[in-house]
Design goal:
The protein has 320 residues and is α/β, with parallel strands linked by helices. The chain contains 13 helices and ten strands. Helix 1 packs across helix 8 and helix 8 crosses helix 9.
Length: 320
């Protein structure tokens, strides 16, 4: 997957995904001592960056595969994106989701016409159920991150960052399975070789840090965090191949994520879900200090604002 692949994905996303804005936040710039911008992927039609990858993959399927329909496994945002794309293309979409999925995300999948199947509490539960349903119904599986088309689509975020902020020095990206950071790193470092890309993970789901330390994806025994979109047990094999040696990783606590989520809502007017607020948490907590003009990717905003006061840290003992 190359920079040219990302540029091709960008051409085909025109009129589908929003070109989201960069917004400087003076309070963050003052805190960090350098200009800090938010890349507002929460402003996508589906409320998260996942639309970019889902469209890139599904729109490239052969007609016969499209006619049979698609299926994915998701904690929420990727499922909503797949349902949105399927509705736009007039095809069937099934999404297996954890029984613990936030109601706002389940409702989001259904709002776009997706069929929700609840399957256990772990990422492996919903993956296994999706594979079984795919085989039974002849559906095409649309993985959430470990696929070249998904990475290429997500990489268009990086293209936009460089185009809108040519002197960008550092980019912080929320990390779950790694599709977003793989695409962004390929685009940003490909265009600005001296720029740095950092993955931000919840302390209870540091799969990228484990992979960086080991030099290969490592399966965690368990994960747990209020940032429900950042909790696979391991980063993807393909996604890690694109970032190995090119990115570092920092971790933030659930307390810091909750504080940042509330601050973004109340003081900045940005509707971010905990996963999307992780990068802001890294700056506000001091876990990450950029050394030049920096972009914090706000990856999504799919949460009910009425529940923001109910956010509480999640024990690592709980499966994800």
């Amino acid at each position: 997957m190359t920079l040219d692949d990302i540029r091709d994905a960008a051409r085909h996303l025109a009129g589908v995904a929003a070109r989201t804005p960069l917004r400087e936040v003076p309070a963050l710039s003052q805190l960090a001592g350098v200009p800090i911008y938010l890349k507002l992927e929460n402003e996508q039609p589906t409320g998260a960056f996942k639309l970019r990858g889902a469209w890139t993959l599904i729109s490239r399927l052969a007609p016969a595969a499209r006619e049979r329909g698609v299926i994915t496994y998701s904690s929420g945002n990727h499922g909503q994106a797949v349902a949105f794309v399927a509705r736009r293309l007039g095809i069937r979409a099934v999404v297996t989701m954890p029984e613990t999925a936030p109601p706002a995300k389940v409702q989001g999948v259904r709002r776009w016409g997706g069929e929700v199947v609840l399957a256990g509490a772990t990422s492996e539960d919903r993956y296994a159920r999706a594979l079984a349903l795919a085989e039974a119904d002849g559906l095409t599986v649309v993985p959430p991150y470990d696929h070249p088309d998904i990475i290429a689509g997500q990489g268009t975020v990086g293209l936009e960052i460089v185009e809108d902020l040519p002197n960008v020095a550092q980019v912080a990206v929320p990390v779950g399975g790694g599709g977003l950071i793989a695409g962004i790193a390929t685009a940003v470092i490909g265009l600005r070789p001296h720029a740095a890309v950092t993955g931000v993970e919840p302390a209870g789901g540091a799969a990228l840090a484990a992979a960086v330390a080991a030099g290969t994806p490592v399966r965690l025994a368990r994960t747990g965090s209020v940032a429900d979109g950042l909790l696979p047990l391991a980063v993807g094999t393909l996604t890690f191949a694109h970032v190995k040696g090119h990115v570092d990783a920092v971790q933030v606590s659930d307390d810091a994520i909750i504080e940042a989520t509330r601050w973004l809502h109340r003081d900045v007017g940005v509707r971010a879900e905990p996963s999307g607020a992780a990068t802001t948490a890294a700056v506000r907590s001091g876990a990450w200090r950029p050394g030049g003009p920096a972009v914090l990717v706000v990856s999504g905003g799919n949460m009910d604002p009425d529940t923001i006061d109910d956010l509480t840290p999640v024990s690592l003992a709980e499966p994800s």
